[in-house]
Design brief:
Blueprint lengths: L5 H7 L15 E5 L8 H14 L7 E6 L5 H12 L5 E6 L20 E5 L2 E2 L1 H9 L6 E5 L2 E2 L3 E3 L5 E5 L9 E4 L5 E7 L8 E3 L7 E7 L11 H4 L7 E5 L22 E5 L8 H7 L7 E5 L36 E6 L4 H11 L7 E6 L1
Parallel strand pairs: 1-2, 2-3, 3-4, 4-6, 5-7, 6-9, 8-10, 9-11, 10-12, 11-13, 13-14, 14-15, 15-16, 16-17, 17-18
Helix pairs in contact: 2-3
Length: 367
């Protein structure tokens, strides 16, 4: 019964007299406003008030709440607070875009059992952010999706999985992440909302997987010095960089480029390789343990598209990138996903670096 949405679970209890009070002790509460008609806001408020008031479980395994339509701030805050008072191990709160921006109540001692916290478009004040460190001693999984963060500092000695996607901070403060036990990190940014130079990652010796996605919905300046982020990811085994200008913005002095000794898998998704692959070579020369490289729909040099449509493919001249040299002795597999118009430039790339890939398997996949 705990796997059912709250309204359906209560309705199910009517089927048997032995079940009629089971909803009062369900270890999981999942409230979704979509289950009620738009005209039934009074019924929804009455249902949620009764459910949370008469629920008797001393603690919850999960508290989930999804708000889809505007409601009074004080009422919704009371519901959130009542659910968190049950010391849930998992909290998932989200709202749709057409509702008010509701805030997460202060956790206090009720966060002692919290292991996973997933929030979508929720406001977090300074006290809530501080409670993530001081009041959540077992927190391991944190996801903040399009949240409004007043004090963008995430600090936790127990956090293992972190996702920060398109967060908004009107204060303009630097996003600081201090999580020494972190295993996986996922950062997503919009070019207009977030400057990578305002992201500070402290030492993360346990970090294994990292994904950095730089979104660019329209013309804008490239992100500033994101190499600061790379220097904090030197211990990862898997790194994924996504976004049109991710690599273009990493142009730094090769002598100061960090060395990634633990890298096993490196993935570039939609990145800019139009510098004749020199930044790609810079990565490969600084990843001595790399075993797998994936290039997925990356931007290639412009000369790859300067050819006539009706020309015989067998007679097309292919430019070889002989200047691309690197030392990557453990590289076993290269996967390239490309578009049809990029095929000739890809073969030019491969013919130029073939001498470095005698023991490497290459898989080409056309979109």
């Amino acid at each position: 019964m705990s796997f059912l949405p709250a309204r359906l679970a209560v309705q199910t209890c009517v089927l048997s007299r032995r079940w009629e009070d089971l909803w009062c002790s369900m270890p999981c509460i999942s409230i979704d406003q979509q289950e009620f008609d738009m005209a039934a806001s009074g019924r929804f408020e009455e249902f949620v008030n009764s459910l949370l008031m008469f629920h008797k479980a001393p603690s919850l395994e999960m508290f989930r709440f999804y708000v889809t339509r505007p409601y009074k701030f004080e009422v919704v805050s009371r519901w959130f607070r009542r659910g968190i008072m049950c010391c849930p191990a998992v909290v998932e709160i989200s709202r749709s875009a057409n509702t008010h921006c509701y805030g997460l109540p202060h956790l206090g001692p009720r966060g002692c059992c919290l292991r996973r916290l997933h929030l979508v478009a929720i406001y977090l004040d300074k006290t809530v952010m501080q409670h993530l460190s001081s009041a959540c001693p077992v927190l391991e999984d944190l996801e903040l999706d399009e949240c409004f963060i007043d004090h963008p500092e995430i600090s936790s000695t127990t956090l293992k999985h972190l996702m920060v996607k398109d967060y908004i901070s009107y204060s303009g403060k630097v996003l600081m992440i201090a999580a020494p036990a972190l295993v996986s990190l996922y950062l997503v940014s919009n070019a207009v909302q977030w400057n990578w130079g305002s992201v500070l990652l402290n030492d993360m010796p346990s970090l294994v997987n990292a994904k950095v996605y730089f979104k660019q919905d329209g013309p804008s300046d490239p992100p500033q010095v994101p190499c600061k982020i790379l220097c904090s990811l030197i211990n990862v085994r898997y790194l994924e960089l996504s976004g049109l200008d991710t690599l273009l913005a990493l142009h730094e002095d090769p002598d100061t480029f960090p060395t990634f000794s633990n890298f096993r898998t490196l993935l570039f998704n939609g990145c800019d390789l139009s510098d004749d692959f020199q930044m790609l070579a810079c990565f490969l020369n600084n990843t001595p343990s790399l075993e797998k490289l994936t290039l997925q729909y990356c931007k290639l040099p412009e000369d790859s598209k300067k050819r006539k449509r009706m020309e015989n493919p067998k007679r097309i001249s292919i430019k070889c990138h002989d200047t691309l040299t690197f030392q990557c002795p453990n590289l076993k597999l290269i996967e390239i996903k490309y578009k049809e118009e990029d095929v000739h430039q890809l073969f030019g790339l491969l013919s130029g670096i073939w001498r470095n890939l005698l023991k490497t398997t290459i898989i080409l996949t056309k979109a």
